Amino acid sequence: MRWHQINPELLANKALYSYQTEAMKDYLERYKFLGDYRLRYVFQRQWCDFIVKNYPPKQGWLYVPIPVDQESKSQRGFNQVIGLAELLPLTEVLEMKQTHGRVKQSKKNRRQRMQTKQPFNYSGSEGEILRKKVVLLDDVYTTGRTLYHARVVLKTHGAALVRSVTLSR
Fold first, then answer.
1. Is residue 169 within 8 Å of residue 18, measured between CB atoms?
2. Torsion angle defined by CA atoms of residues 10, 12, 14 and 17, in that order, rounded to the nearest 10 degrees
3. What is the pTM of this model?
4. What is the model's pLDDT at position 105?
5. Which member of 33, 79, 156, 168 has the lowest number of beta carbons within 10 Å of its beta carbon?
């Protein structure tokens, strides 16, 4: 309802799991924030299969992961979304505007998240996503702000349709 007030075109998101469980919170803490890269295998096959089943590449869907800033990647050693989605043919056309010193979404409350300015630039080639169907991939959907920002960039660069899949919500 809140998103509909801000934007008449809602972003269709599908999530495999609820984030509101201790098991999922613990998993993401260990995988994403403590950097245990091996944990990508826990959900990788199931998540990738879900994405391909719902958005088949043979039907023209492109898989676009949400990027992380350089600081996070340096600390963690990897992009957690790319780790989960490494079995898919990814189209990496988004990059972070700010590479260092950014306040992470996980450190913000709801109001602060909703007020976040556009964090992404388009980094793909001209026409790479023109008239294409795109699935945004992210690990967690909390407020949806990150995914809505990404959708704006993709639509501005010609994407015909943008959907999203997250591991949890």
1. yes
2. 0
3. 0.88
4. 60
5. 156
Nearest to 163 by CA among 6, 5, 10: 10
**CA diameter of the chain:** 43
Q: Which pair of tokens denotes residue 73?
A: 């990647």
CA distance 57 to 74: 31
Q: Which residue matches tokens 């043919």?
A: 89
HSE of 164, CA atoms in CB hemisphere, 13 A: 29
Which pLDDT belongs to residue 103? 67
**pLDDT band, residue 8 (cuts 50/70/90):** low
Q: How far apart are CA 64 and CA 73, in angstroms?
A: 17
Q: To the nearest 10°, report the CA torsion of 18, 19, 21, 23.
A: 110
Per-residue exposure over 111-148, b if at least 16 CB sit within 10 Å of its own CB, e if not: eebeebeebbebebeeeebeebebbbbbbbbbbbbbbb
